[in-house]
Every structure is written in structure tokens, then in C-alpha cells.
Write a structure and sequence with these properties.
Blueprint (H helix, E strand, L loop, with lengths): L4 E8 L6 E10 L2 E3 L4 E3 L2 E14 L2 E5 L6 E7 L5 H8 L4 H13 L7
């Protein structure tokens, strides 16, 4: 992603080598979401999505299915601050991450093997 996001952790998906749940914390300017026509708040979001990593000689590729992830607003903010992003990244989101992973698994939104 860009410099306004931080990968918090990658959780391996059991039984699928090279597949992970990628957990990101990122800043969004908010506004109208053109896919669901809802107005989204400006601020920091936590997201989880299933990714597959592959690569070769000196490069790495991440593949994922569009719209397969889940996100939630962590904190509203009028503008981006790297210090706030780093501080929020230190918080414990284990319970929220577990709910997101369960949601993805229940809806079978993982990558096809």
C-alpha cells in the first residue's frame, strides 16, 4: 500500500500454503463510496483480507480477490498523522481481527486454492 498504511500482522491460513490474512491499519480521506453509495468517515481503519503470496527471483507478488475484505473505523481524524498511525498500530486488535477472520471464513471469501 502507500505510506499512509501499516501492515500489523499476517496470519497464515490453515491448509493453504502461501495464503494469509493480511491485517492493515490505514488512513482514508473518506467521502462517498461509489460501490455502495454510503458516505464513509475520514480517519483510521483496520482491515483484514485474504491474500496469496508468490514470487521468484527477487520479487514478491500478493494476489487477492476484490471486495473480499472487511474494514472498520478505528478513530476519526481530520488529517493524516504518521505518529497517530504508529500509536494506533501498537494497540491490541486481536478480538476485532478474530471477528473479521470469522466473517471472511463464514462468507467463504478466501482465495480459491
Amino acid at each position: 500500500m502507500n505510506n499512509q498504511s501499516k501492515t500489523i500482522k499476517e496470519i497464515p491460513i490453515e491448509g493453504k500454503p502461501n495464503h494469509y490474512y493480511k491485517v492493515n491499519l490505514f488512513y482514508s480521506k473518506g467521502g462517498l463510496n461509489y460501490f455502495n453509495y454510503k458516505n464513509e468517515d475520514r480517519g483510521y481503519y483496520l482491515s483484514v483480507k485474504a491474500v496469496e503470496k508468490s514470487g521468484g527471483d527477487g520479487y514478491q507478488v500478493e494476489s487477492y480477490v476484490l471486495f473480499n475484505g472487511v474494514k472498520s473505523l478505528v478513530q476519526t481524524a481530520n488529517r493524516f498523522s504518521q505518529k497517530v498511525l504508529e500509536t494506533l498500530a501498537l494497540a491490541n486488535y486481536d478480538e476485532t481481527i478474530a471477528k473479521f477472520v470469522k466473517h471472511i471464513e463464514d462468507r467463504n471469501l478466501q482465495l480459491a486454492a
